[in-house]
Design brief:
The chain is an alpha/beta fold. 42% of the residues lie in helices and 21% in strands. The longest helix has 22 residues, at 285-306. The structure holds nicotinamide-adenine-dinucleotide. Residues 6-12, 31-34, 76-81, 90, 94, 97, 100-101, 117-119, 121, 142-143, 146, 174, 222-225, 228 line the site of nicotinamide-adenine-dinucleotide.
Length: 309
């Protein structure tokens, strides 16, 4: 199993480390345009192997030769937000970067399943699919896993319970039209609505939508990467190990939830082929409405992106 991570910045390097430490891949290749950066990080990570007890070999490169024939490619190349910026402010710069990466990956790893994380996420996932020409089920975006983990953690902190006791899901876009789904949240099996008032639930929903900006404002340079890399690594593991687990991901929706032909955050079954099924949850009327609103917002932006590459 060969896995490539494009971009050796904060998100890319922590993702490489998490995948390599999990031990199921033979090789993880990390590429970046900055000379020496991926090579230096690879050397450092390889030297942690005797200490951490894993054998996966990590390779750093400034070109795509060593990535050839990868089974899975994670795309983290691109600029992160600065305080006060929205993810959408990254659109023009990152479209150029992700478009270029898509051309390289299409020729070096034509059979790969691709997981895109560069922002704005829904638009960059759509752009990667279009430029690469890969079938839509092989190009997936990571956002819902992270947004869901943030929602779970906010609920756990509010109630003073273990984050592991909270079930939740977040759909929609990785942006203002994110759709945390309160009707599907439970804590130790109890519905959230029995534990908190409507106002308290709404505050947690808003805090989840603002979760990325909260970290950016504190860090001042760069955006979150510990939880984001955990989210991407979970998706990579599901594809690599063909687990068929259902996860909230940005996937091509064609008819489900009454929504057509757009990349959007939905629950999907992941396996060796990428997205193997979009799962339709039983949502409330207002949640479905919010999902459709998110779909229209993403659709109009995705149309803008088509003009950029
Ligand atoms: N989807 C999510 O949930 C989520 C969460 C956090 C961050 N992000 C996004 O992930 C991206 C990366 O974030 P980061 O914190 O790692 O940023 P970073 O600045 O630390 O790293 C980005 C890296 O990309 C590299 N790069 C630029 N152009 C490249 C190219 N053409 N080919 C290869 N590498 C290239 C840069 O040299 C840099 O090392 C950003 O767009 C950020 O907004 C997404």
């Amino acid at each position: 199993m060969k896995i490539t991570v494009v971009g050796a910045g904060k998100y890319g390097s922590t993702t490489v480390q998490r995948i390599a430490q999990a031990g199921y891949a033979d090789e993880v290749v990390m590429t970046d345009i900055v000379e020496g950066l991926p090579q230096g990080l690879a050397l450092d990570m390889n030297q942690s192997r005797p200490l951490e007890g894993f054998e996966t070999r990590i390779v750093g490169s400034n070109h795509y030769g060593p990535t050839a024939g990868s089974d899975i490619v994670v795309v983290t190349a691109g600029k992160p937000r600065k305080p006060g910026m929205s993810r959408m402010d990254l659109l023009t710069d990152n479209a150029q970067i992700v478009g270029g990466v898509a051309r390289e990956v299409a020729s070096s790893s034509p059979d790969a399943v691709v997981i895109v994380v560069s922002n704005p996420l829904d638009e960059m996932t759509a752009l990667f699919q279009k430029v690469s020409g890969f079938p839509a089920e092989r190009v997936i975006g990571q956002a819902g896993m992270l947004d869901t983990a943030r929602f779970q953690d906010k609920v756990a902190e509010k109630l003073g319970v273990s984050p592991l006791s909270v079930e939740a899901i977040t759909l929609g876009s990785h942006g203002d039209t994110m759709v945390p789904v309160p009707s599907k949240v439970s804590v130790e099996g109890k519905p959230l609505g029995e534990l908190l008032s409507d106002d308290e639930v709404e505050q947690l929903v808003q805090a989840t939508r603002d979760g990325g900006a909260e970290v950016v404002a504190l860090l001042k340079t760069g955006s979150a990467y510990y939880a984001p890399s955990s989210a991407a690594a979970k998706m990579v593991a599901a594809v690599a190990k063909d687990t068929k687990d259902v996860m909230p991901v940005c996937a091509w929706v064609s008819g489900q939830y009454g929504i057509n032909d757009v990349y959007l955050g939905v629950p999907a079954r992941l396996g060796r082929g990428g997205v193997e099924e979009i799962v339709e949850l039983d949502l409330t009327e207002s949640e479905v409405e919010a999902l459709r609103t998110a779909a229209e917002a993403v659709r109009s932006k995705q149309a803008d992106v088509d003009g950029l590459v």
